[in-house]
Protein 1
Amino acid sequence: MAKWVYRFEEGSADMRPLLGGKGANLAEMTNLGLPIPQGFTVTTEACTDYYNKGKKISDEIKDQIFAELAVLEEKQQKKFGDTDNPLLVSVRSGARASMPGMMDTILNLGLNDVSVEGFAARTGNKRFAYDSYRRFIQMFSDVVMEVPKSLFERVLDEVKNKKHVHYDTELNADDLMGVIKRFKTIYKDKMGEDFPQDPKVQLMEAVKAVFRSWDNERAIVYRRMNDIPGDWGTAVNVQAMVFGNMGDTSGTGVAFTRNPSTGEKGIFGEYLINAQGEDVVAGIRTPQPITKLAEDLPECYAKFMEIANKLEEHYRDMQDMEFTIENGNLYFLQTRNGKRTAQAALKIACDLVDEGKITEQEAVCRIEAKSLDQLLHPTFDDIALRDGEVMGIGLPASPGAAAGKVYFTAEEAKIAHGRGERVILVRLETSPEDIEGMHASEGILTVRGGMTSHAAVVARGMGTCCVSGCGAININEDEKWFELGGVKFNEGDYISLDGSTGKIYRGDLRTRDAVISGNFERIMNWADKYRKLRVRTNADTPADALNALKLGAEGIGLCRTEHMFFDADRIPKIRKMILSNTVEQREAALNELIPFQKSDFKGIFKTMEGRPVTIRFLDPPLHEFVPTDDADIKALAKEMGLKFEEVKAKCESLHEFNPMMGHRGCRLAVTYPEIARMQTRAVMEAAIEENEKYGFSIEPEIMIPLVGDKKELKFVKKVIVEVAEQVKKEKKSDIKYHIGTMIEIPRAALLADEIAEEAEFFSFGTNDLTQMTFGFSRDDTGKFIDSYYKSKIYESDPFAKLDQNGVGQLIQMAAEKGRKTRPDIKLGICGEHGGDPSSVEFCHKVGLTYVSCSPFRVPIARLAAAQAAINDEQ
Ligand code: PEP
Ligand code: MG
């Protein structure tokens, strides 16, 4: 019989895939002898089984849950649903990777009309018992049954208003009894049945709700953003309750062993006296800093610190812990490797190496490659910052600089982002439903909530700048305005946030580019030491190339020459070339372009100081260069001395039904070899002249796009070689040059052995290769890909994350075939995937020579390449 349920003492930290992160850590802490309220974990496999059985929990699983419940009852000397001494439990989700998008915790499960009396008698506190029961009804209805919580809040407000009181704590036992009655009526009205009195029914409904939450929309969005597979499932943790709301010697809190924002060593966290679990994260009451616990409950603080240090030593990483104190007794509810900003991650990893706790390789693997993106974002320009008008200050919840227009709902933030606006989301407080809007925002500002509020935790995870808990703000979300520092800001007004200081500025402050230094540089140096893959960049201008060099690029893997033609002084010339009727006319037009191309290439060669540069010859369909509106066509006709109608007809004749599969790529060079001739001359002359001038030894790499057949490449190659040799002769140079191709058509991958006879190198153009392998237009997938996510056909965008099963097979095959023909063939990738960590790992496995990505992703690729190499050796 399969085992679906594990007591905490039966598990361990390495059972994370089966028990989820929370379950595995609860097990580990139990085995370390720490004070953990006992309980059990229903496995992630039980979740998968629930889905496989058409969303049903099998009798076998149910039996095992109840058997473990009996063991827990025995241990706690309490009984589920008992009149005298009832057992109450919490129910929490816990996936393999922590996922804030999933189900909220349910507390106090096991209370009913009978057990609440037993609970009151045991605790000697009727008010406390009724308050727990009303909270449970509210939570169960909201989280498990999806009855809106606003209905319950309204009742609570009514009762308070009638009594002329402000706080829940001012309601007595009788008031709460009345509230419970009304809550149960709401439940019955909405659900068509009584609130479940059988605790076992409550428990099974809660377990089902956790399983269901694995597939709620927020969780799916979160998974997609974080590359978490949909078939992992979540575990469910059932744990005996301890109470932080039993008076002034009770409390609850969350704490980190190091600062999750900066990485600074030292305890960091918050707690609330006389409060229950979610009160701290919900941001409704403002919590105390953890160090103040030393004054409130010194013994608990000492014990807490001892355990916190022990946990960090044990896990050899910064811990994020939840604890509860019940009548002076300290309990740990969970621990996990804490989420942190990229800046903190770098500092923590370097400090742990210096403290002798981890190796350089481990430090490299501790940094999430994608998170480096946060550090590559701009910070505020010093002068702009000095002159900026500070309107107020909140908590520095997640670092970074952000400036944009304010929006008050996640939905509007998303829409504005879609329009290309920079957005600052301003909310009273955020909740998990806001996740997409938060993702679309440059920065997040909240009125309520501490450093561990939802907004703060999620923003840090995303690397988005966040200032939280700015209580000085007067906000009206419905009317879309807020006031701060005596100024009213309406939707669409600009503000700027500094997530590192918590300062809120008026207007749109200027930012400056990031640099790699300090801990960042140290980690990158370690990464370079261990990686096998080379990292190049995709750059079309000297400015981009310089940026990439600063970020560690070792060469250019893709220089898209067409981008050079769009400048105002060049486009008329390329248009003239396209609209020419004869070869002579075309050549004349191209001759005018040579000086421009040549100086562009010289600029790039000079910037790259002799590092390898791959220049890709003209690729896009020609219609992209010609005007579409009549005024532009008229101007062009005038310049060319042609009739408007003639030019218009010619432009229209360039129309294609499938331009992406039309007259583009090497097909342009097949039909108009003079284009390849012009580009070859420009490349060769530029390289020879820069070599002579600076003493470089550039060997230009000329890359032919969209090849599908050896003969096609051979044809274009012949044209290039003729001109290159001619230029060499003219310039009396013995410069070496290389001709290779992109592999971006499936046929080229299939026939890579033949193509390698002509190509000295392959560069996988995985944008087109994905497009052609899937048959998905790369420009149109946005229209339907969401339905594919919703229907679980695909979990991620194949244009962002390489489809290793399909497209990956083609790459692997082409690499093998290429090497068979030409053992020293140089293999690279220059599609967008070259900067995606999981795709980089694949490239390492396949044994490519280099990856090439946009400048800002160079550090990400360097780190991902090192992680792939280190993991490969283990
Ligand atoms: C590719 O297709 O992957 C590629 C790099 O070329 P482009 O994006 O310019 O088509
Ligand atoms: Mg391409």
Protein 2
Amino acid sequence: MSDNGPALGNEIFITGCAQLLTLRGSVPRRGRAMNRIEIIRDGALLVADGRILAVGPRRDVARHKVARGARKVELGGKVVLPGFVDSHTHLVFPSSRADEHVRRCAGETYEEIARAGGGILSSVRGLRATKPAQLESRALQSLRRFAEHGTTTVEAKSGYGLDTASELKTLRLHRKLAKEQPLDIVSTFMGAHVVPPEYRKRRAGADAYVKFLAEHLIPQVAGEGLAEFCDVFCDRGAFTVKQARAVLTAGRVCGLVPRIHAEQLAHTGAARLAVELRAASADHLEYVNASEIRALASSDVVATLLPGCGAHLGHTHHAPARRLIEAGAIVALATDYNPGTSPTLSMSMVLSLATSQLRMTPAEAITASTINAAYSLGRQDGIGSLEVGKLADLSVFDVADYREIPYYFGVNLCVLTIKRGKVIYSRAGVNKI
Ligand code: NIG
Ligand code: FE
């Protein structure tokens, strides 16, 4: 995305924010504090060199000496919040799996389709056969759409390659995209997505693949600095807790911080493993039990909920968001953008699902998709809230009240997205900037 839209001058005075949600305060947010989004009415922001120089009520910020010479952006009464931090995506994939969606509509389940050789393995066949340039143009299109929906940081997992060449192809693409387009990309190695086809033919093939990851691919990925995190799909039909422990421990030894897909399809004990390994995040958690909720709550592992999956797959058993929040867990929300279970990149759609299906309040959902998500990526000092010294990453919604963002579900009301002080998306006619 080299054409990032109209470039603003170095210093910008953003005003006319009917509600400016700063999210300043304690990090990470737990329990009742998740409702604290710190709204400034008639707020303004002053940005210089891509960072926030001042933030507060319009009259106070206008008095700042830099405000006078800065380029003014008058929003005319919109809602401004930190750019969304989408802390769980499978950004790079070769094509849609709309055919599987149709099969599910006709009654087949996600796991049945996977057992029949579809699912993740179908994306693996596609990715292996797809040239980097083609993967890149699809990923760039996705990233432009993330920006259109108000997202300014995206975590991206590999895991549709499952062999050395194809995993490295994906991870090198993460690195290229991070350099060549404006959104921040946080790279995660997920070689342990499922057991690849060539290992399925062998006896104890899954263990042999885990050994290959631990002894060969992980050291290579870490050695080339291609990922910050290591993730495992620890669930029925994928990897066991024992195998996940082996992969994540090998990652940790090489400096990759663990994350884990846990308790999505069945209860396995993966959430407890996340606590044991002090993972950055345990994601999904539909089948987490009461004692695991307590264990997560007394840990620093972020519980990342992904309601797009349940909605797309038609599952009605939801993650226990209320119980997690009330127990004091650090709750985050993400899209899980991927072609199999959650082909959405709209965080406002995720907010709608989190409020209506998981019974989170709009304020909790915004905290979960900004500052708590930033914390799960270890980026809480730079992003996730609008505070002096942090990056000027923000999204502007054409609503009068932030609660209307989840309320108008399925409608993209984001009209302006700014990343490091630069406009990366502006809906035609918005402020003519
Ligand atoms: O987060 N659960 C594992 N991984 C993805 C699904 C990937 C796919 O079906 O392609 C998820 O739901
Ligand atoms: Fe996922």
